[in-house]
Specification:
alpha/beta
Length: 518
């Protein structure tokens, strides 16, 4: 569905894990409720987060252990206290970093809290939730049963990737699976219970956002992790060898971010099998995310047209080739299934006319990033003068440096080019972030979004992810002190002045004309 021509709205991009919290990592509890209240109070219509699936190696939200499950690390201990599944003393911890997420400390701490809550639930605490829990397990069984067993087995085998498990489990021999279900029944129950809590808290958060007139943008990774319950449970959907290892892996060729390309390592889809099923697994994936959010950013949109296939074992991504994706066939199926296409197309990177044609055929809003705009070419698609209304503009994304950090690394000539475009005389790094936010909000794009570090005018220390770097990402946290009213009051006035007080109840979208798919 495209943004209506007269729709103008704005919002802020920040991952749930980056919100303030006394428990070492942002979560779905009071801090998220407070964040929604703040956005609503200061005139914003949208909150965008990164994917919220359970993370594995590197803690990347784009390498989830499941396409359906939630990340148990964002379960709020405060909500569990409110639910009488924990006591306040349970959540005491000697120290957590406020500057970043220390996963080595947070993961065992959160796991211990879940085990305590699970133990009390089994012992009869909150018996009134038992029916809801059983109903949840039944309703989500199409993915939850495999995921819970997968997590129990990973714990049993020291968190080893599933291809390293005993062969009868890798190959999913029925007798081996049944034996594991019996032997690991408590761990399986804990995994199911954790998902019940995540979904319960996420539902509460979405309801609160609705009540405050705010809408949520979620993020759907195009690929899944090679070590995931998705690949283990549905090997037929991916291009794997006899040992259930990827034959080809995903990435991108050399680009803006990396001279060697990016080698992501995800397995590639067997699109023919997906087509034969009417994309059933993918439709369930979309429906699952839409139960928590209102609009979905389709990560790596160009993969629907073609994806970069690299031979497994290659040292870098340069030896890959583009092979076709499902194209328009997938989006026609999605429109039939969902009734509408509530998507934003992440059309960044090495984009071909075929990718633009696919986006425009279904009138999906595309993305524009201002940090890519100032190469001196007037036809640069990221320059606001070249936008159409059906666009979402960002100062930067989670893969970019903060705008202040980006500006600091530019040459004097590059900085001069930017200020010339802005028709201003400012040239200090301290002014760059707000200048680009003003430019985004003043553009004709239907939706303007700013990462929280740019709104707060933070430097390189607040970068969320550096593409191509395997470790040290996804750690940045905000603090309560950072979220002062001054920055948000400035944003409210800018939003009013640029007429971006959009009405999110209609999402600012209209149904695609019937002729669009012809």
């Amino acid at each position: 569905m495209p943004f209506s021509a007269n729709y103008r709205a704005s919002g802020v991009l920040v991952h749930v894990t980056s919100l303030p919290s006394p428990h070492g990592i942002g979560d779905l509890g009071p801090a998220a409720i407070s964040w929604i209240n703040r956005l609503s109070e200061f005139g914003q219509s949208w909150w965008q987060s990164l994917p919220l699936g359970p993370t594995g190696y590197g803690n990347s939200p784009y390498q989830p252990l499941s396409s359906f499950a939630g990340n148990a690390l964002v379960i709020s201990p405060d909500c569990l206290i409110e639910d009488e599944l924990l006591e306040r003393n349970d959540t005491r911890h000697p120290s957590f970093s406020t500057a970043c997420v220390d996963y080595d400390t947070v993961i065992p701490f959160k796991h211990s809290l879940l085990e305590k809550a699970w133990g009390r639930f089994k012992a009869g605490a909150r018996a009134d939730l038992r029916q809801a829990y059983e109903q949840f397990c039944q309703d989500q069984s199409h993915w939850l049963d495999d995921y819970a067993l997968f997590r129990a087995l990973k714990a049993e085998f020291g968190n080893a990737p599933y291809p390293e498990w005993p062969d009868d489990l890798v190959q999913r021999k029925p007798a081996a699976l049944e034996r594991a279900r019996l032997e690991l029944i408590d761990r399986i129950g804990l995994a199911r219970f954790a998902q019940f809590l995540v979904f319960r808290q996420a539902e509460r958060l979405k309801s609160h956002a609705r009540a405050k007139g705010l809408r949520l943008i979620g993020d759907l990774p195009f690929f899944v992790s090679a070590d995931s319950s998705d690949v283990w449970a549905h090997p037929e959907l991916f291009l794997l060898d006899q040992q259930r290892r990827p034959q080809l892996v995903a990435g991108v060729p050399p680009d803006y971010f990396s001279a060697l390309g990016q080698l992501w390592g995800n397995p590639l889809y067997n699109w023919e099998v997906h087509r034969q099923s009417g994309y059933r697994w993918l439709m369930e994936r979309l429906r699952s995310l839409l139960s928590h959010v209102d609009l979905i950013r389709l990560d790596h949109f160009r993969g629907f047209a073609a994806a970069w296939h690299v031979p497994a074992g290659a040292p870098d991504a340069r030896s890959g080739e583009w092979l076709p994706g499902p194209g328009a066939d997938f989006f026609r199926a999605a429109e039939t299934e969902l009734g509408t296409l509530p998507f934003i197309a992440e059309d960044l990177g090495l984009i071909t006319p075929e990718v633009h044609a696919l986006r425009d055929q279904f009138q999906l809003p595309g993305m524009r990033v201002l940090q890519f705009a100032f190469d001196g070419h007037q036809d640069n698609p990221y320059l606001p003068a070249n936008y159409v209304a059906n666009t979402v503009v960002y100062t930067g994304t989670h893969d970019n440096p903060t705008t202040r950090g980006w500006f600091e690394d530019l040459t004097d000539d590059q900085r001069e080019r930017i200020w010339k475009y802005l028709k201003g005389e400012r040239a200090r790094s301290s002014e760059a972030a707000h200048a680009l936010i003003e430019l985004a909000w003043s553009s004709m794009a239907g939706l303007a979004m700013a990462p929280l570090p740019d709104l707060l005018n933070l430097g390189k220390e607040a970068r969320m992810n550096t593409p191509g770097r395997a470790e040290g990402n996804w750690r940045w946290r905000s603090t309560e002190d950072m979220l002062s009213d001054s920055a948000f009051e400035w944003l409210r006035e800018l939003t009013k002045g640029t007429n971006r007080s959009g009405t999110p109840a209609t999402y600012g979208l209209k149904k695609r004309e019937a002729t669009a798919t012809n």
